[in-house]
Amino acid sequence: MKSLVRWLAFTVALAFAAPAALAQDAKKVQMLWLGQACWKVTTPGGHVIVIDPWLLKNPKTPAKYKNLDALGKVDLILVSHAHMDHFGDAPALAIKNHAPIWGPAGLQQSMLTLGIVPPELAPRFNKGGTIEPFPGVKITPVHADHSSEFTWVNPATGKPEVHDGSEPMGFMITMENGFRIYHMGDTALFGDMKFYGEYYKPDIVLIPIGGHFVMDPKDAAFAIREWLKPKYVVPMHYGTNPLMTGTPEQFIKALGDAPVKVFPISPGETLEF
Fold this sequence. Notes:
- The protein is of the alpha/beta class.
- The protein has helices spanning 2-15, 19-22, 84-87, 90-97, 105-114, 192-199, 217-228, 248-255, and strands at 30-33, 39-42, 48-51, 76-78, 101-102, 131-134, 137-143, 150-153, 160-163, 169-174, 180-183, 204-208, 232-236, 261-262, 270-272.
- β10 (169-174) and β11 (180-183) form a beta hairpin.
């Protein structure tokens, strides 16, 4: 019996061990949140995907990551839509790492037309398609209910211009081990979230809760509790400006007794699965 108790204690301690202690396990999915909708995801195979990289001007980015070199190797960049708090540092990060940016097709075309990145760094895809950029890793763009105008400062005139940013997206990202991440991008409630929960069955949902521009905690909780029903959820996209007043505490309260594990982490913290 004592041996069993010791084994259980060890198992529980391992499950809640510090990320640094678990980082040596290359077979885990590692997810580093960097504020707003920006994530660095390391797949079990060691591939690094950065989503919605807004770092240098993001007030919630930890000081360490105000230098893009701090991200280390980046293999692929996902941009959910053209707003600068999601697109902001994507071109610089892509050029630094020679990593392709995948995002809405119209945004890709605008980048090419304006000469922001070379063609090999702005491949096109769209909702309904799936790419497999690394063996066993699949990325499917899905609907997000938002806008996506692309505001660009013309270096010749110093004036802002508005270009096509195409339709916004969320992403279903399947890891080599089958673990599925749903990064929702910026979105309001829409009925097909129920279908996404039934069809894609995401293990973890990264969900905006700030309100005003996106779902507030009540709407986000409804989506999780009634439609998506994942194992895990992380609230994001809140607190970066005075208009986004939603909080993780409000989100957790609105979830009630929904059978989902909430990770109300802070920017700079890592989850592993």
